[in-house]
Amino acid sequence: PPPGLRIHEYLYFQVLSPGDIRYIFTATPAKDFGGVFNTRYDQIHLVPADPPEACGELNNGVFIQDQIALVERGGCSFLSKTRVIQEHGGRAVIIADNAYDNDSFYIEMIQDSSRRTADIPALFLLGRDGYMIRRSLEQHGLPWAVISIPVNVTSIPTYEMMQPPWTFW
């Protein structure tokens, strides 16, 4: 994989809109399935899946085509969710923990026992971060956020690193 995107390292994305959550978020790539980002998307939609757990047919699958899906943990395996998003034409999936108060514990997303595979990148996001993104979209009546991913944080001066205020570093 390209430098900076190896297993067990963090991957960063920035929400560009809505403005009240214009932060840089930290995610962790799946451990043993899924692809890597070989493109940087400067502006791509982050679309919350409907239903949120994305274990089957999606009601808003048409909006996920060529975009990135925000999915909630639970109901089926990480790999199943990733495959559902891939089948709907998503470029990647970000799976947020379903514990909304989780602001520090990254879960290792591993293969299930089905021997299936997935080609798109799958990232794990803290439950608190996923919740705050979805809440902001609901408050603004927006169907998706606009993000850039991946963000190379080593090129950003520390004082400009816009971390979410609810996260401890």
From TrEMBL:
Compartments (UniProt record): Secreted
Boundaries of every PA domain copy: 46-130
Protein name, as recorded: Protease-associated domain-containing protein 1
Free-text function comment from the UniProt entry: Plays a role in the modulation of physical activity and adiposity.
One Pfam family it belongs to: PA
Keyword list, A-Z: Glycoprotein, Secreted, Signal
UniProt KW Glycoprotein keyword: yes
